[in-house]
Design brief:
The complex is a heterodimer of chains A (141) and B (140). In chain A, α5 runs antiparallel to α6. Chain A is an all-alpha fold. Chain A has 6 helices and no strands. About 33% of the residues of chain A have low confidence. The radius of gyration of chain A is 32 Å and the shape is elongated. Chain B is mostly helical and 140 residues long. Chain B is built from 6 helices and no strands. The radius of gyration of chain B is 18 Å and the shape is globular. Classes of the chains: A mainly alpha (141), B mainly alpha (140). Chains A and B meet through α4 and α6 of A and α1, α2, α3 and α6 of B.
Chain lengths: 141, 140
């Protein structure tokens, strides 16, 4: 029984040696021929990283949530402006790190929300309030 | 395997953000609903400037109805509030139970369409309300 185990171990050791010698010989052949080397594609860590599916990160998600908030709160001035700026900053940083759909949607929503907020706030400050129906004058958002 | 680790990291990040949001938003919401609104209910500037409903019209009433347990009424006032509440509470509850090892409950996976759907709900609500206002003069 022990002899059998020893024999098996010897066999595996031998096969491992054979594999290592074949690998060495292959690398030797590659190193010797320059023309063959030039055709071999070079894989580095960055090329593998780009092949991974792009996944939205938490910052992009926070940016889009702030963007939605800025659109929802665009009728009450300062809250909408604050969330719009926060959403725009988060989305732009996230888009630079990892450009995903969520980050782009965050930039779009935040920009529209911020723009609406600024326009509405300025117009209400300068007194450009329209005379709309009396049923709507007590309307809160 | 690396993708799975990334997803779990993303959901762990979102869970932490959710806890921080809860700690900040609940006192602010309480302050706003109990102190600010009774003294000075913010007028909707958009309807005063343009004569149109803003994308968040009905939001305060929806939150108020939700806090009073009137879920259907809250949905009618603004569906985004109800949608956000369901998604947020579902995500946080399942992840909390998973962390406490209650049964075999697994935390919700985050999908991008959750947020895209939120944007769509908001836009559809906004457009429908304004069509009802401008064409049929129905105020909501």
């Amino acid at each position: 029984m022990d002899n059998q185990n020893l024999n098996n171990e010897n066999v595996t050791v031998e096969s491992a040696n054979v594999e290592s010698t074949t690998v060495e010989s292959a690398s030797y052949v590659d190193a010797s021929s320059n023309t063959y080397q030039s055709e071999v594609p070079v894989y580095d860590a960055s090329s593998f990283a780009t092949e991974e599916p792009k996944q939205s990160n938490a910052l992009a998600i926070v940016g889009l949530v702030f963007g939605i908030l800025s659109l929802v709160l665009c009728c009450c001035g300062c809250f909408g402006i604050i969330s719009g700026i926060a959403g725009l900053v988060c989305s732009i940083i996230a888009n630079k790190k990892n450009p995903t759909g969520i980050a782009k949607a965050g930039i779009i929503c935040s920009a529209i929300g911020l723009g609406l907020c600024v326009i509405i706030t300025i117009l209400s400050w300068v007194g450009a309030l329209g005379d709309y129906s009396s049923a709507l004058e007590n309307m809160t958002y | 395997m690396r993708d799975m680790e990334k997803k779990s990291t993303l959901e762990a990040d979102l869970y932490r953000i959710g806890v921080i949001t809860l700690l900040i938003a609940v006192p602010l919401l309480f302050l706003y609903m109990k102190v600010v609104v009774p003294i000075y209910p913010f007028p909707c500037l958009m309807i005063q400037v343009f004569g149109l409903y803003c994308p968040g019209c009905g939001g305060t009433r929806a939150v108020s109805a939700l806090l009073h347990g009137e879920f259907f009424q809250s949905f009618l006032y603004h569906p985004l509030v109800m949608y956000g509440m369901v998604m947020y509470s579902g995500f946080m509850l399942t992840h909390t139970l998973e962390r406490l090892h209650v049964g075999r409950i697994k935390g919700w996976k985050f999908h991008d369409w959750y947020l895209y759907l939120a944007v769509v709900i908001m836009l559809v609500n906004w457009i429908v309300r304004n069509i009802l206002l401008l064409k049929y003069h129905i105020t909501l």
